[in-house]
Design a protein that fits this description.
This protein has helices spanning 3-12, 18-29, 33-55, 63-68, 76-91, 93-118, 124-142, 152-173. The protein has 178 residues and is mainly α. The chain has one domain (31-173). The longest helix is centred in the middle third of the chain and has 26 residues, at 93-118. 75% of the residues lie in helices and 0% in strands. It starts with a helix and ends in a 5-residue tail after the last helix. It is built from eight helices and no strands.
Length: 178
């Protein structure tokens, strides 16, 4: 091999991003088809429930916000959304935009739950706690379907990165780079 061809080979090899390594790790660890189906349903439910619980945490009354009517738009959920989207943006920008869309849908649903609660329905924290518990237990039990044991650390990493991992399948199917 000449110097020129070695140099070309080095240029062709692109380093893996952290998110790609994580997705490959998930693909190796979570292979059982039924577990994958469970993840497709329970990871979004888990994410929705976490956002809903953070959303309803009491937010301090700030006169400046109340004066201009912004107090209805700012809560702990706003900060949680900003931090989550920023984290995903650092990992995979295109996937973070998909998550922003997802969070928009989740926010709409949480506001609908607020209206239901105001109309005498169940409290949001109760609905979200139930969804969170249900999805967590199902996901935790389903991880034992895998041939190789999944560590607790990897399980929690799945809960953190699971939403964009699910989106990455959609992007791959549509041939959209992320």
């Amino acid at each position: 091999m000449t110097k020129h061809s070695k140099k070309q080979k080095k240029q062709l090899v692109t380093p893996k991003r952290e998110v790609d390594a994580q997705f490959e790790s998930f693909d190796r660890q979570f292979q059982h088809p039924f577990n994958r189906t469970i993840q497709n349903f329970c990871i979004p439910i888990f994410s929705f429930a976490v956002l809903g619980l953070v959303w309803v945490l009491p937010f301090p009354e700030i006169a400046f916000l109340e004066k201009y009517g912004y107090d209805t738009f700012i809560n702990w959920g706003s900060f949680f959304i900003a931090a989550m989207v920023y984290y995903y943006l650092r990992l995979a920008p295109t996937l973070s935009y998909a998550m922003l869309l997802t969070v928009g849908v989740f926010s709409f649903l949480i506001v609908q739950l607020e209206y239901i609660e105001q109309g005498g329905g169940p409290e949001i924290w109760l609905v979200c706690s139930t969804l969170l518990s249900f999805s967590f237990v199902i996901l935790y039990i389903a991880k034992d379907m895998e041939r190789r044991p999944v560590s607790l650390r990897e399980f929690f990493r799945l809960l953190l990165l699971g939403p964009i991992w699910l989106w990455h399948f959609v992007f791959k199917k549509l041939n959209i780079p992320y």
